[in-house]
Amino acid sequence: MTISLYQKDLVSVDSLSVGEIDLVFEEAKEMEKLVKEKGGDDRLSGKILAALFFEPSTRTFSSFITAMQRLGGGIIPMNGMKNTSIDKGESFEHTVKVFSNYADILVIRHPEFGMPRIASEYAGVPVINAGDGIGEHPTQALLDVYTITDHFKSSKDLVVTLVGDLKNGRTVHSLSKLIAKMGIVGKFNFVSPPVLTMPVDIKKSIVAQKAQIIETESMESAILGSDVIYMTRVQKERFEDQKEYDRLKSYYQLTQQMLSKTKKDALVMHPLPIAAGEINHQVDNDPRSVYLTKQLRNGLSVRMALLHLILNK
Ligand code: NCD
């Protein structure tokens, strides 16, 4: 059977097979080359992407728009739904139906968990989840794993440390499941305050893939033997009690001094934005930091790859 993503939805990393993930990564390499050599081409000419973002976004939104444009496609860029008929009371379902009559693919970000899945039931075109509440962010996970596997070419037993708001952070939900599925990790360190630990269902699915999990509150010791140090922002918008957010927002702050004791070929990653100093500015210039360089560029390559694989046979 040939592996293909043609006309498929991407709502959760659970739906991806290892073969499909490898296909995306191979295609992303091609896209990287294409952008470097020619800036792009017109292989998606005649196709339209509607980006429906019901929540703020800098990178995911603009990289999807860029990806479509570099491949010659058109865009309906809704970075915020404020001036749409949603404001007049139009339902989410009708909104999705409307845009799926104009566009060939919908990229949806929403504050509520599960909305991209609902959209996929109404839309007659493929839907990509660009982040749904505290649920998932599958394209971020793909670009993160692409960054990791590209750096540690043949590694199998990586130590991956995820730090911060593991309860509400959708990036780490998708990422930990995807890493476990790829079989590249020996051990996860889940570092969080006791009230922000990784949800039980996600831990279960990781253990089912035979990866070991250590949960701890202490970042400094966890990062010592780590190959990947993945920092995250405490998710302000998921807190009802802003005092509780203020108590937790700067719980972890990765400094250059802490980093000086860690592995020389480690990767320091963050999905961005850095919102409360969880990574000190000095760390930006450390050669191990990829959150302002490779992670961003890989985001473009991976999203170009996905659009091409989903829209062209
Ligand atoms: C993340 C998100 O929206 O979940 N941002 C992103 O897409 N890179 C992470 C975050 O906002 O903390």
Structural class: alpha/beta
Mean pLDDT: 97
Count of β-strands: 9
Bound molecules: N-carbamoyl-L-aspartate
The amount of beta strand, in percent, is 15-25%
Radius of gyration: 19 Å
The poorly predicted ranges are none
Largest sheet: 5 strands, parallel
- Assign an overall shape: globular
Helix content: 25-40%
For the largest beta sheet, what order do the strands appear in spatially?
Answer: 7-6-5-8-9
Order of helices and strands: HEHEHEHEHEHEHEHEHHEH
**Helix run count:** 11
- Measured between the Cα atoms of the first and last residue, the distance is 15 Å
Q: What does it look like?
A:
The protein is of the alpha/beta class and 313 residues long. Helix content is 39%, strand content 16%. It has eleven helices and nine strands. The protein has helices at 18-38, 59-70, 92-102, 115-122, 138-151, 170-182, 200-208, 219-222, 242-248, 256-259, 294-311; strands at 48-53, 74-79, 105-110, 127-132, 158-163, 185-191, 212-216, 228-231, 267-269. The strands form two sheets. It has a five-stranded parallel β-sheet with strand order 7-6-5-8-9, with helices on one face. Strands 2-1-3-4 form a four-stranded parallel β-sheet, with helices on both faces. Strand 5 (158-163), helix 6 and strand 6 form a beta-alpha-beta unit. Helix 1 (18-38) packs across helix 11 (294-311), helix 5 (138-151) packs across helix 11 and helix 6 (170-182) runs parallel beside helix 7. It is globular. The model has no long low-confidence stretch (mean pLDDT 97). The chain binds N-carbamoyl-L-aspartate. The site of N-carbamoyl-L-aspartate (NCD) has 10 residues, from helix 2 and helix 6.
